Amino acid sequence: MSYITQSELETAYGVNEIADAADRDADGVADAAVVTAAIGRATGVIDSHLRSRFTLPLVSTPDLVREISLALVRYYLAATNANERTKDDYKQAILWLKDIREGKMDIGLDETDTAVAPTSGGAEFEHGGGAFDEDALNEFRGHSAGWRR
User: Fold this and answer.
1) pLDDT by residue (tens digit) across 104-149?
2) Close Cβ partners of 100 (under 8 Å, ≥ 6 residues apart)
3) What is the 3-state secondary structure (H, E, C) of 30-97?
4) Which end of the chain has less Cβ packing within 10 Å, N or C?
5) Taking a C-beta distance cutoff of 8 angstroms, is the pair 109, 55 a contact?
6) Residue 46 near residue 68, CB atoms below 8 Å
7) Per-residue pLDDT tens for 76-87?
8) Which of 66, 20, 21, 75 is nearest to 43 (CA)?
9) Weakest-pLDDT range from 33-47, 65-79, 130-144
10) Helix, strand or coil for residue 146?
C-alpha cells in the first residue's frame, strides 16, 4: 500500500517540479512509471521502519507518514540534483522513521494498527486446566473400575 499518490506529490511540490524530476521522455509531463517507482521505493523504506511496531498495511495513513513519504519520493526523484531543502527534508524524514521505530514518536495510530508480538513462527500452546477436575476424574475411575469386572 502506498502512502501517497502522484496527485498528492504534485499538489505538495508543484506539477512543474515533479515533471522536471520525473520526465524521462522529454514531453514536459512527469512519467507515471518513474513516479510510481519512487513511491514504491519510499513505501518500502517506510514499511521497513514501521513493520516492527505496527501491522501492515496500516488501516489509515497518519499525516506524519504521508509527510515522510512526500519527502522521500521528492528526494528519490531529484536523484543527484537534489537541492539543500530536499536533502534536509529527506534527512529529517529518516530521523522521524527511526524515532517511530524506536517508539520515541507517537504517530497517532490506535490499537487496531498495533502489531502483534512476534513469535518463532511455530505453533504455540498454552497449558490450561483440564475439562474435568480431580474429583470428577476420581469418581469416574471408581465407577469405571466397577464396569470392568
Assistant:
1) 999 988 645 555 444 445 555 455 555 666 776 677 667 655 555 4
2) 49, 50, 53, 64, 107
3) CCHHHHHHHHHHHHHHHHHHHCCCECCCCCCCCHHHHHHHHHHHHHHHHHHHCCHHHHHHHHHHHHHH
4) C
5) no
6) yes
7) 999 888 999 999
8) 66
9) 130-144
10) helix
